[in-house]
Automatic annotation (TrEMBL):
The keyword Disulfide bond applies. It comes from Paramuricea clavata. Keywords: Disulfide bond. PROSITE patterns: CUB (PS01180). This is Uncharacterized protein. The lineage of its organism: Eukaryota, Metazoa, Cnidaria, Anthozoa, Octocorallia. PANTHER family: MUCIN-5AC, PERFORIN-LIKE PROTEIN 1. SMART domains: CUB. The keyword Methyltransferase does not apply.
Amino acid sequence: MDVTLVGNKNDVNRTFCMKQNTGTQTRFWPKGSYCIYQNQGCPKDMKSGAVYWDDENDYNRNINGGFLPYGTQDQNTAIYYCCQTDGNWYDSIELPVSEPFHLLTSSSTDTPKCQMVKWALSYLEYIVFDTEDTNNRDAQKDVHLFLDGEKKYYCYYEECHRTMTGLSGSFRSHKAAVNEMDPRSQYCSWLITLAETYNVSLSFKELTIPSCKDTFLRIYDGSNNTAPLLGTYCGSNASTEIVVLSSTNNLYIVSNSGSYARSAKNTFTFHAQYNAENLTEFQPSKLPSVGNNGSSVSKTVTISAISTTPAILPLCCSEGE
């Protein structure tokens, strides 16, 4: 969906991309709390609903064309939705994130919420529709996008994968969401990839991950999360004394900032910096042991990719949780 103001900025122009083929559905929309536009019925496990706009009678310039969501588009507007309500907005779902996209909020939540999507930042947006003032007949049916009076809420997503190729650089965790309109994320990643003659040295100016309950920072010796795991950091083993040295020209870093259901997001913070090193051998120091609560009981100084010591893996967390 794309939205622009037209004319004297009292009118809204909305454009849509609609899937037209009706082949067999082989993948289903994941459980969560969100809506999509309806086109001739809803996918399995999604519920139908609608919103009706009693558009302004004076100077009404409604026009339409092309393929549109199911509904009515004439002097007034009705749009039908398909809504997933079998999950929680704060449990991340997996969707393609290579291109920006919109999901719709759901009236199944008490306040407007953006469904968390793995590897994406979500931005809550709204449009104010000034509909008919006299004998207004605005209406809603069943589950639909979240609305608050004249405000209709939408969610915009863009990926939070970042790739860095410079010989040095820095990156940090995304800012914590303070209010409803702030961007939110849960799973994000950073890939450092250099020329083959270099290794990567990674250190931290700041690393604060107080809990191992559902938050962590993971570092892999390669270009993705199938590479050897160098360490998982949370609790007391999340220290600025950590220095990570790769055995290849790549390091892949994954963060999980935790569930918004449990706590405010102002406790998970890190600020990392890296440098290219012309090194082929490292002298690794011993990795810290892990206590029963998943936290370290000794200090980490330097972690080398050629160490034979097992990676730190808290008992609390797996990447899919």
